[in-house]
Specification:
alpha/beta, 2 helices, about 35% strand, globular
Amino acid sequence: FVDNEGKKDSIHYEIDIVVKNDIYILVEVKSKIDEHDLFYINKSFKYYEETEGKNKNIRKFIITFVVENRVVKIADKMGIKIISPDVYDEYKEIR
């Protein structure tokens, strides 16, 4: 893969995609998401959007069991919806 700036990227990207009523739903499922995971997943979503997703109605989701509140806020700014039963503050125990 070569990005928009001509730089090679050797990371393997895997995305689950659901298509329904002309809506392309990009999904990543992980047991726990941290900030590093979020940026990696967002990079894979962006790659799909740039290569396959032009002129498509795309929605992005991460399904996870455990995630910090601050990661949810960052994801929201990226246009990614996180679905999780437990969102916690990093300084508090998981409820």
